[in-house]
Amino acid sequence: MSMDQTPCVIWQGALAANGYPVAGKTYMHRASLALKLRRSVRHGFDACHTCDVRSCVNPDHLYEGTRSQNMADCTARGRHNKPAGEAHWGAKVSADDVREMRRLSNLGWTRKALGEKYDINPATVSRIVRNIWRTEVSA
User: Residues 125, 101: one domain?
Assistant: First the structure.
């Protein structure tokens, strides 16, 4: 529910892969906000939610904001927290693998050889062994 306590209006149609309501190529929360504003949402601006419900199209729960405002709001509400390390959906190597990869790199293994051993791209290996990625893993 929104901070103004009016109920969400949940879109009953299709949702895009990102969870937002869509009809064809039109994001319906943007269309709802445009009806409220009596104009299109300005180019480069987002239709921001006050209710934290992606599928809500209640115009009273929407406001026009910059991408920076939207992301700051998202972070402040705890909705922008991606899992890190092994908890991330795309993780291919464990913390133990990361430690071993760094150890082997220090022993002279090439990024290519490590990439083949762990079935990951050598560029990813490079970021891991240089401690740019997987910084949560200590030695």
Answer: yes
First to last CA, the chain: 45
> What pTM, to 2 d.p., does this model score?
0.56
The verdict on residue 30 lying in a domain is yes
Mark whether 64 and 101 lie in a shared domain. Answer: no
* Cβ 18 vs Cβ 42: under 8 Å: no
Q: How far is CA 6 from CA 62, 77, 95, 98, in A?
A: 12, 19, 46, 49
Domain that holds residue 55: 1-81
The sign one gets for the Cα dihedral 67, 70, 74, 75 is: positive
User: 25 with 55, same domain?
Assistant: yes
Do the Cβ atoms of 117 and 124 come closer than 8 Å?
Answer: no
Answer positive or negative: Cα dihedral of 121, 122, 123, 128: positive
Report residue 135: phi and psi, to 5°: -70, -15
CB 121 within 8 A of CB 115: yes
Give the pLDDT confidence of 2-61 residue by residue, as tens digits.
556 799 999 999 998 888 899 999 999 999 999 999 999 999 999 999 998 889 999 999
